[in-house]
Amino acid sequence: MPSLRFHLGLAGGLLAAALAACAPRIVAPPSPPPQTVRQPQGLQCLDELGRRGAVFEMVAERVSANGCRLTNGVSLTRSSVALDKAATLGCPLALALHDFETRVVQPAAQKHFRRNLVQINHFGAYDCRNIRGTRRLSEHARGQALDIGGFELDGGIRISVKEHWTNAGARSRFLQEVAKGACEVFSVVLTPRSDSEHHDHFHVDIGPRPHCGA
Ligand SMILES: [Zn+2]
User: Fold this and answer.
1) Domain for residue 41, yes or no?
2) pLDDT the model gives residue 34
3) pLDDT at res. 40
4) For the chain, is the Cβ count within 10 Å smaller at the N or the C terminus?
5) Does a structural domain hold residue 10?
């Protein structure tokens, strides 16, 4: 049956091509939120987050009439290190945070202090609101943004964006390097250099409008 064989071969080929196109770890969910930074979605994301040793609880889907939406949300208390309090965010952002800690923050902590990062201090993630001063929904309203206020290293070293962004020696150099590195992981990074709204934190998100404010 050459014609059946052809169709099976074609289907197999298409499947292989589709899998190859998705490699190494992109799986499209039914309607993912728009992202520039691609991370696994859906159950694959939750599996990966658990595999990395993160500590989290799944949270119920949140959808509101004005466009706020949290799907595959987690309440994250630990990624590669502890968070000072639980953060509610979409799973793909939690993976991006883990990447950021391991690829950017830990190396910078070793370089500038010869210490390990032990905690991320943050001001919040999911929040159903507009970008301040605009009518456009914030990426916080999609669980795709996190506001990071500082970092704690072992040995009791505390580094705060508000206090140490400039004129604080190694702490400032650490923060500037971490901000630049964040642009390699997240699609948007806003810092005290961006505007006065961000004088005390880094806003990082995985939304569709890339911008590096490091
Ligand atoms: Zn923010």
Assistant:
1) yes
2) 60
3) 78
4) N
5) no
Domain presence at residue 6: no
User: Which domain does 57 fall in, by range?
Assistant: 29-212
- CATH of residue 97's domain is 3.30.1380
pLDDT of residue 21: 38
How many CA atoms are closer than 13 Å to the CA of 137, on its beta-carbon side?
Answer: 20
Distance 135 CA to ligand 1 centre (A): 15
Residue partners of 200: CB distance under 8 A and separation at least 6? 149, 160, 161, 162, 192
Number of folded domains that form the chain: 1
Ligand 1 centroid to residue 202 C-alpha, Å = 7
Rounded distance from Cα 100 to ligand 1 centre (Å) = 16
Question: Over the chain (214 residues), what is each successive 10-residue block's mean pLDDT?
Answer: 39 39 42 63 92 96 92 96 98 97 98 98 96 92 97 97 97 98 97 96 96 96
Yes or no: say if 153 and 109 are a contact pair by the CB < 8 Å rule: yes
Separation of 31 CA from ligand 1 center, angstroms? 23
Length of the chain: 214
Whole-number Å distance, alpha carbon 204 to ligand 1 midpoint, is 7
How far away, in angstroms, is 23 Cα from ligand 1 center? 31
**pTM score, whole prediction:** 0.82
Ligand 1 centroid, distance to 200 Cα (angstroms): 11
The answer to whether 96 and 185 have CB atoms below 8 angstroms apart is: yes
Give the distance (Å) from ligand 1 centre to CA of residue 196: 13
